[in-house]
Write a structure and sequence with these properties.
With 355 residues, the chain is of the alpha+beta class. The protein contains 8 helices and 18 strands. The chain binds calcium ion (CA) (2 copies).
Length: 355
C-alpha cells in the first residue's frame, strides 16, 4: 500500500468533510504545522491560541484516528499503541518539527525548538534507540510552547469511558534535573475542555511532578460541567512520592500507570514503579466533567529553573485500554526484561487515604 494511502485510511474524517480528493491529509497536516510555526514568529499570542484550538477541536487527535497497533495478539491484550522509538523518527497531527514527517504518528509535538527532542542510541532501555527530551532555560519566552519539550498522544473518545493503562521507562542522567523549588511536569494526563461551552484548559488531571528532588503525583477532579479555570478543582489526595531523583539518576526506571476516570466515586488510580505498587486508590473521584477524554503527554514542561537545562530519556511507551493489564504495557516486553508485578500486600507503601 502506498504510504499516502495508508495515511488516508487512518483519517476517515477527511472524507466526511468533503475536502478535495486531490488534497491528501498529510499535506493538510504539514500546512497546519508550518502555519503554526510561522505564527510563532509573528505572534506568540496567536500561536498559543492556534495550537490549543487545533488540539481541542481536531478530531484527528482522537486516539481512534491515530495509527492503531498492528497485530491480533496486541489487540487481544487491549493494546492501543506502542513505540520503542526504533524507527528513529516520528510525526505529528499537530505541531512538531519540519523534519518530523514519517514514523509512528503522535497527536501533537510541542517543542521549544528543533533540539528539544532527539533519538539516541545511548542510553537505551530496549532495542537500539530511545528518545531524549531537552528543556533549556534560555529558550523560555511568553508563549506556552517555549516552556515545553513534550509529545502528546491521542485523546480518548469520551471521558466517561476513559480507562487506560500506560507503560514507559524513564532515565534521568546525573544532574539532569536540578534540585529546586520550581516544578517540572514530566508525564501528565491532560483533560480536554468542553470548548463549545467556553471552558478553558485546566491543570492536568494527573501529573508526574519533579520538585525538591522528588518525583510525586496527585490526582484531581471537578464535578462542574464547566470548570472556571483551576479555582474549584479539588486535589483529593496528598501527593504520592514515587521516587527521589537520586534514585532515578543514571538508570532506567519502569513505570506503569492505570487511570480510570470517574466522577461518581468510581475512579481508579494505580502507579507501579519497577513493579512495586506505589499508588493504589479506588472508589474516589478523578477527572473533569468533559465530553472528550484526556490524553497522555511525556517530556518536560516547566516555567523556569535555577539550572540552564533539564534532560530526560524515555523508551518503551505502551498504551492500553480497559482490557489491558500491567503485563500488557510494562516496559521490556520486546527483549523479555519486563519487571514482574509485586503484590500490593507485600510491598505497597501507599500513603493513608485522605478524605
Ligand atoms: Ca527503544
Ligand atoms: Ca467540562
Amino acid at each position: 500500500m502506498p504510504a499516502s494511502a495508508g495515511i488516508f485510511a487512518r483519517y476517515p474524517v477527511f472524507k466526511d468533510k468533503n475536502l478535495s480528493e486531490t488534497i491528501t491529509p498529510i499535506y493538510i497536516m504539514r500546512a497546519l504545522s508550518i502555519l503554526s510555526r510561522q505564527a510563532c514568529a509573528l505572534s506568540t499570542v496567536l500561536l498559543t491560541s492556534t495550537v490549543t484550538d487545533l488540539a481541542a477541536y481536531n478530531e484527528d487527535t482522537l486516539e481512534a484516528n491515530l495509527a492503531p497497533h498492528a497485530g491480533q495478539a496486541a489487540a487481544a491484550e487491549g493494546l492501543i499503541w506502542s513505540t520503542g522509538f526504533e524507527e528513529g523518527q516520528f510525526q505529528f497531527v499537530v505541531g512538531g518539527r519540519e523534519l518530523d514527517t514519517d514514523g509512528p504518528l503522535w497527536a501533537q509535538g510541542q517543542f521549544q525548538d528543533d533540539d528539544a527532542v532527539a533519538f539516541v542510541s545511548e542510553p537505551v532501555r530496549s532495542g537500539n534507540l530511545a528518545l531524549k527530551y531537552l528543556w533549556c532555560k534560555d529558550k523560555l519566552g511568553e508563549a506556552n510552547l517555549t516552556k515545553k519539550s513534550m509529545t502528546h498522544y491521542g485523546k480518548a473518545a469520551t471521558n466517561a469511558d476513559s480507562d487506560r493503562w500506560y507503560g514507559f521507562s524513564l532515565y534521568i542522567p546525573k544532574g539532569g534535573f536540578p534540585d529546586e523549588k520550581q516544578n517540572a511536569v514530566i508525564f501528565q494526563l491532560h483533560a480536554t475542555p468542553d470548548r463549545t461551552l467556553g471552558e478553558p484548559y485546566r491543570q492536568p488531571v494527573v501529573a508526574f511532578n519533579i520538585r525538591d528532588g522528588k518525583l510525586t503525583t496527585a490526582p484531581s477532579y471537578d464535578l462542574e460541567k464547566v470548570s472556571p479555570k483551576n479555582v474549584n478543582i479539588e486535589k483529593n489526595r496528598l501527593p504520592f512520592e514515587l521516587a527521589s531523583i537520586t534514585d532515578l539518576e543514571g538508570k532506567w526506571t519502569d513505570f506503569v500507570v492505570h487511570a480510570k476516570m470517574g466522577l461518581e466515586n468510581d475512579a481508579v488510580y494505580q502507579v507501579w514503579v519497577d513493579g512495586k505498587l506505589m499508588v493504589d486508590i479506588k472508589d474516589f473521584n478523578m477527572g473533569y466533567n468533559d465530553e472528550v477524554g484526556p490524553y497522555p503527554s511525556w517530556g518536560v514542561y516547566s516555567y523556569n529553573s535555577v539550572g540552564d537545562q533539564r534532560i530526560l530519556y524515555i523508551d518503551e511507551v505502551r498504551i492500553g485500554d480497559a482490557n489491558a493489564t500491567y503485563e500488557a504495557v510494562a516496559p521490556g516486553r520486546s527483549d523479555h526484561t519486563q519487571k514482574p508485578r509485586i503484590e500490593q500486600a507485600a510491598e505497597c507503601s501507599c500513603p493513608e487515604k485522605q478524605s
